[in-house]
């Protein structure tokens, strides 16, 4: 019962964030017009007076952007939960251990190599990016996981240090690509590294939405197994769980999620760390509620960060990656200090 | 019934368990003794299917353990490892509830079992506390309650493997813990327990297996195994062995 009311509250917050995200921006729409425009777009008959402008802005610009924000936020938060479960450590985060950088490297390869070899036909472009980002994320997750484990235990320091090394390595290769890139690729690359929801289009959305739905449907089915995994790999085995399979599924899930999010919106850091932490403070660590709650809270937080990024320097806008890191890095330091006392 | 025949396990090119035969029978409690590094925990890892033996096999009801489906095996066989690392703030009852994971027996039934198992491990007063705020001994009892809940109430065919369940406990709780395990055996369960305290082993176990460098040095009743000669040869320790003045089981006193 407690869980249900918490999920309902988070759902309401998420709906409110969606509404705000559709209404606010360089042109601020009245809240009721926004609602009517959305209803009209999905086919509900409403009074159509003075709705053209609102419908154009909402339908063409803000709705894809909001959907992108929702999906990226939910997927990054879920990847964070999955990673913390896999490493059995609440400080694991796809950005910190280099998975995001690996995915960004994959994306950079796709952008630059794609540009110099002529690339794939237009309709396949978003998928090439997603596949490369996924491959990069998968590679780094597997490497860091290998390095960070010894005798069935995770060494957090090894894992974080391996993450630092992988991030630096990926960064240097991305730097090399930046050096080699032509002007058009360079612009795209820069945006990728900063993370942005700007220029969202339905084309870019599809691969991410597919992954998002898959992850949201699949991860909660393994919630109890994830709980048991937190006890330890041996303990999970004793409770009848196929641990090797679970771990493979988690790694796949993290790589898919982070890969798709990075391909669609670039590097957006710390969502996977902050959101599960805040959620656990609210609900406790039981994955049966942490997973859906993190998806909702991640989506909400990312939309709020995006609204902030849009408004703070309007009409110019900040890349959202800067906003999340600006909030997330101090939060991470706070966790470290609190953990030590 | 859990049976291991001629079990051999190599680890890093070294034979850590050699030619061990074990049979865990309903209602009986087997104690495993031996110095550090004698292969006790490795033996237990093989008996629960976590580690594949190099030679020999482990049979649960005449079927090789690795052919059992995970949840079915877990309903029959529960294992308490030496120490557990749990870094998340689960409530005590949530940790114990994980023992019910293989069952799917419903919230109400599980709730009652959790209460009973916690009571058996003397942990009822810990209800509602966060696992992270517990002391080492309290955590050990919560994990005991978890594995008891996994095979609650215990019947013929169910097996409990415990690796040093009393290592972090005060003297009273060393006894309450082994009494709870004894009660599980009395209901028909089979138990194997690794112990370092020879007198606890003498008091609570029906049979003892004394391991030395991966081999069975002696096995039999506590009277047969706990002899000054055997303990001198395996532990290098000079001891007196006398009957317990009230209970009659062997009492081991260091000289």
UniProtKB/TrEMBL annotation, chain A:
GO BP field: siderophore-iron import into cell
Transmembrane helix recorded as keyword: yes
Keywords recorded for this protein, A-Z: Cell membrane, Membrane, Transmembrane, Transmembrane helix, Transport
Major subcellular location class: membrane
Topology term for the membrane: Multi-pass membrane protein
Membrane-spanning residues: 67-87, 94-115, 127-147, 159-181, 201-219, 250-277, 289-309, 316-337
Listed GO MF terms: transmembrane transporter activity
Claim: Membrane is one of the keywords in the record: yes
Superkingdom of the source species: Bacteria
Listed Pfam families: FecCD (PF01032)
Any one GO cellular component localisation term in the record: plasma membrane
Localization annotation: Cell membrane
PANTHER family assigned: ABC TRANSPORTER PERMEASE PROTEIN MJ0876-RELATED, FERRIC ENTEROBACTIN TRANSPORT SYSTEM PERMEASE PROTEIN
Family: Belongs to the binding-protein-dependent transport system permease family. FecCD subfamily.
The protein's name: Iron ABC transporter permease
Organism of derivation: Pseudomonas graminis
Automatic annotation (TrEMBL), chain B:
Gene Ontology terms for molecular function: ATP binding; ATP hydrolysis activity
Residue ranges constituting the ABC transporter domain according to the UniProt record: 2-238
Keyword terms of this UniProt record: ATP-binding, Nucleotide-binding, Translocase, Transport
InterPro entries cross-referenced by the UniProt entry: AAA+_ATPase (IPR003593), ABC_transporter-like_ATP-bd (IPR003439), P-loop_NTPase (IPR027417)
Lineage: superkingdom: Bacteria
UniProt key word Phosphoprotein: no
Gene3D superfamilies: P-loop containing nucleotide triphosphate hydrolases (3.40.50.300)
Keyword Chloroplast in record: no
Functional note: Part of the ABC transporter complex HmuTUV involved in hemin import. Responsible for energy coupling to the transport system.
Name of the molecule in the record: Heme ABC transporter ATP-binding protein
Species for this entry: Pseudomonas graminis
């Amino acid at each position: 019962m407690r869980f249900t009311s918490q999920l309902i509250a988070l759902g309401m917050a998420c709906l409110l964030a969606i509404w705000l995200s559709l209404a606010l921006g360089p042109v601020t729409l009245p809240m009721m017009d926004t609602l009517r425009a959305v209803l009209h777009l999905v086919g509900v008959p409403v009074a159509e007076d003075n709705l053209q402008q609102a419908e154009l802005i909402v339908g063409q610009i803000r709705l894809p952007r909001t959907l992108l924000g929702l999906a990226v936020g939910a997927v990054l938060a879920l990847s964070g939960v999955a990673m913390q479960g896999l490493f059995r450590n609440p400080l694991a985060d796809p950005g910190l251990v280099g998975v995001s950088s690996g995915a960004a490297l994959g994306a950079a390869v796709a952008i630059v190599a794609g540009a110099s070899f002529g690339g794939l036909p237009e309709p396949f472009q978003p998928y090439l990016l997603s596949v490369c980002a996924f491959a990069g994320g998968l590679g780094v997750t597997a490497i860091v996981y290998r390095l960070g484990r010894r005798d069935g235990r995770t060494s957090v320091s090894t894992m974080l240090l391996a993450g630092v090394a992988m991030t630096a390595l990926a960064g240097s290769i991305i730097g090399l690509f930046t050096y080699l890139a032509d002007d058009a690729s360079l612009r795209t690359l820069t945006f990728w590294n900063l993370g942005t929801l700007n220029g969202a289009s339905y084309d870019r959305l599809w691969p991410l939405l597919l992954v998002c739905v898959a992850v949201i449907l699949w991860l909660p089915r393994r919630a109890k197994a994830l709980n048991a995994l937190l006890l330890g790999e041996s303990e999970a085995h004793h409770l009848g769980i196929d641990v090797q399979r679970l771990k493979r599924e988690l790694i796949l899930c993290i790589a898919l999620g982070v890969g798709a999010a990075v391909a669609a919106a670039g590097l957006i850091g710390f969502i996977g760390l902050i959101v599960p932490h805040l959620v656990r403070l609210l609900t406790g660590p039981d994955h049966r509620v942490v997973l859906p709650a993190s998806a909702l809270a991640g989506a909400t937080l990312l939309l709020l960060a995006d609204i902030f990024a849009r408004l703070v320097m309007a009409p110019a806008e900040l890349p959202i990656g800067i906003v999340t890191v600006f909030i997330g890095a101090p939060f991470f330091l706070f966790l470290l200090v609190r953990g030590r006392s | 019934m859990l049976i291991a025949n001629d079990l051999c396990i190599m680890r890093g090119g070294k034979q850590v368990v050699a030619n061990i035969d074990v049979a865990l029978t309903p209602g009986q409690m087997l104690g495993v003794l031996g110095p550090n590094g004698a292969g006790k925990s490795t033996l237990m890892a093989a008996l629960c299917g976590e580690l594949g033996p190099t030679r020999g096999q482990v049979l649960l009801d005449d079927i090789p353990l690795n052919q059992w489906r995970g949840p079915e095996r877990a309903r029959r066989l529960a294992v308490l490892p030496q120490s557990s690392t749990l870094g998340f703030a689960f409530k005590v009852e949530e940790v114990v509830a994980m023992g019910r994971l293989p069952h799917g027996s419903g919230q109400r039934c599980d709730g009652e079992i959790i209460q009973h198992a916690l009571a058996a491990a003397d942990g009822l007063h810990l209800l509602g506390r966060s696992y992270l705020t517990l002391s080492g001994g309290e955590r050990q009892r919560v994990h005991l309650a978890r594995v008891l809940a996994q095979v609650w109430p215990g019947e013929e065919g169910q097996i409990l493997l415990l690796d040093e369940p009393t290592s972090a406990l005060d003297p009273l709780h060393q006894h309450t813990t082994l009494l709870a395990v004894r009660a599980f055996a009395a209901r028909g369960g089979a138990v194997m327990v690794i112990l370092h305290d020879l007198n606890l082993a003498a008091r609570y176990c029906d049979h003892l297996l004394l391991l030395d460098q991966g081999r069975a040095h002696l096995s039999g009743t506590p009277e047969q195994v706990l002899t000054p000669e055997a303990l001198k040869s395996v532990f290098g320790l000079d001891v007196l062995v006398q009957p317990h003045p009230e209970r009659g089981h062997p009492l081991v006193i260091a000289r």
